[in-house]
Amino acid sequence: MRRHTRTAEETADFGSQLARTYPGGDDSFAVLYLEGELGAGKTTFAGGFLRALGVSEAVRSPTYTLVELYPVRGRNFVHVDLYRLRDPEDVGSLGLRDWARAGTVWLIEWPEKGGDRLPRPDLMVRFTVGTRGHDIEIDARSATGQAWLGRLAAS
User: Fold this and answer.
1) Which one of 20, 35, 84, 104 has the largest count of C-beta atoms within 10 Å of its C-beta?
2) Residues 137/126, Cβ–Cβ less than 8 Å
3) How many whole angstroms separate alpha carbon 153 and alpha carbon 155?
4) Going by CATH, does the domain composed of 2-154 fall within 3.40.50.11030?
């Protein structure tokens, strides 16, 4: 699935739309990889996604903290930014394993920095900066991801 957004608001709205079509329940675990260059809209998209699921606080890029946890109504949303990670081995020190459980959704920016230390994604979301906005491409990488894209396409 592809989408072109012209403004930050449209990028956040698309993140919100994706969140609202999540096919998993409170007992599911999902992983989204957010790939793209600096300024391509990854954090803006994540903010829209998280706000749609009930996060009321400001969503900032976890560039310096690396991991931000947002607990909402018995579920956990983990926003990860691996941009500053120097070695994939360092993923283990982030405590992510504690959040690889039911009722949790991970949004991982710069997943390529984590190498094979990360779980496989359900959705791969790629952001590209264009001359008139951003192009966002989403690919399913699991049965959950396929169901999710199906719901998104139908919405």
Assistant:
1) 104
2) yes
3) 6
4) no
